[in-house]
Amino acid sequence: MEPRGLLIASLILFILVTSSLGGHLKSGPTLKMDQALLTFQNQLTEEVQVFYTTDYCYKCVYQHMVTVKPNNNNESTVISSKFTLTMQVESQNRNATLCRWSRTYGEDGHYTIWIKLSEATGNASCIHTVDKVPHNAYLPILVAALFLALIALLFIGAPYIYRRCTTKCIKTICCQMDNDGGQSFEDEHNTTKTKPTRLCSLDTFRGFALTVMVFVNYGGGGYWFFQHAPWNGLTVADLVMPWFVFIIGTSVVLAFRSMQRRGVSRLQQLRKITWRTGILVMLGFCFLNYSPRDGPLSLSWLRVPGVLQRLGFTYFVLSLLQTFWGQKEIPPTANHLGNPVQDVILYWQQWLIIILLETLWLCITFLMPVPDCPTGYLGAGGIGDKGLYPNCTGGAAGYIDRWMFGDNMYRYPTCKEMYLTTQPFDPEGVLGTINSIVIGFLGMQAGKIIIFYKGRNVHILSRFIVWAAILGISAAILSKCTRDGGFIPVNKNLWSLSYVMCMGCFSFLLLAGIYFVTDMKSWWSGQPFIFPGMNSIFVYVGHSLLGFYFPFSWEMRFQQSHWEWLLQSLWGTALWVLIAYLLYKKNFFLKI
Description:
The chain has helices spanning about 5-25, 140-180, 185-190, 200-215, 240-260, 265-285, 305-325, 340-345, 350-365, 395-405, 415-420, 430-450, 455-480, 495-520, 530-535, 535-545, 565-585; strands spanning about 35-40, 50-55, 65-70, 75-80, 85-90, 95-105, 110-115, 125-130. By secondary structure, the protein is α+β, with helices and mostly antiparallel strands. Helix 4 (about 200-215) packs antiparallel against helix 17.
């Protein structure tokens, strides 16, 4: 059976399994996914109040949950089961905390907290009982992982077995012809085999990042780790855009190297750079700003920053660096072992500009005064940092964007729900674009390594690993290997320096691994990720415009668990991979 048939059959099997499992949820409780029910039973003779915070909210002010009247009264409330909650029960009469605990509650679980006097000590105590055992919220993702692993085995194993059987039959026939004076199979194969000129690893890396991005944008099954982090820290969703930017930098070096060999003039290069940048910015500004749910296009809410706008501007700066200071002939000593930093020294002008840009980011971030906010503030504001800086979301980065764009920026930042912020904040703002350029420049360094050590795969891999180690150690030092307590926390919203170092480390490692199995060993052709990787603009714009339409998504019926949402996310992602495959077969590639 061909891989396409196996893929379709596997998708049908997964739909049947998840539909049958989801059907049992009809008679379940009214709680939605990532929710649990708490009932507080107060057996004291005084009224108590319950307050809570979550461990993911850095130094957040405790929020009021419920007030429970005395003498065996009770109150119930729905809580989130995503993160660990810290709760405390307080008595206003005593002005004291009666009990405090931290616990992660299971999805769809029903719990009762009995607030009563302890017989042993005579003090108030809080005792937990489980009224309904929560179900395993991670069972759907486990089933999906096994399902995708099965597809991967079929995708790799079936073509391999098919080729082995076919080759063996052809060899048998051709060997008989060879005995009669015909040309052998090996000779014919060697005369027709051509070495590919395009790096498979780059398209595979780009396609992998795009596939993960589509899956995340479709909701990621509703799991919190497939959504952006509330503020500091990393989730899967925080990885994909830096991967894109990294690959842009690598592709710029290889593309301009090719144009240099073809004798393309600098003026023609500048025209191409300007045209491509303009198209990217206009796509992001005009098309991806529009949504049928928002009504007619209006300048009052039109978002100025955006993903494609940032990608376009980053590409523009990186291309200028390569146009004016990157087109140099590699000296004969560059491939000598005695010149391990030749690929850095030769482009010292580019490094100087990048260092100046990063110095500018550091100075603005930590030295620029922001009204009513502490200098160098990197927090989310709102109820964070003990509620001292409620309107300081993003520090200098947020202040610059609000001054430049006003309300024409992202109004629902990831910190809004947890930190209860009121200020708009755009993760694709002006200040973060500087560090986007830095990540792209690290990708340019990867491209230079590929050029400098062409044909010497061990040197390429070792250089990738060395760069990953340097960047990873730098990120660990800046963040102190903590989420919130470092010198510069890892923060995707701010595109902080530690985030740049961390993402550069991951990018070098991932590119090294894909390069090893695709371009070096040829163990993997990059399928199916190579298909969306070669049509990335089409897939990204298409899924952004059509993502809320059938058949890519539908109105979910079973919202008590992750089953249907995960099915929808996988289904929509698989459809776009299939579309990219069909376009590949038709030799259609959207280029700008």
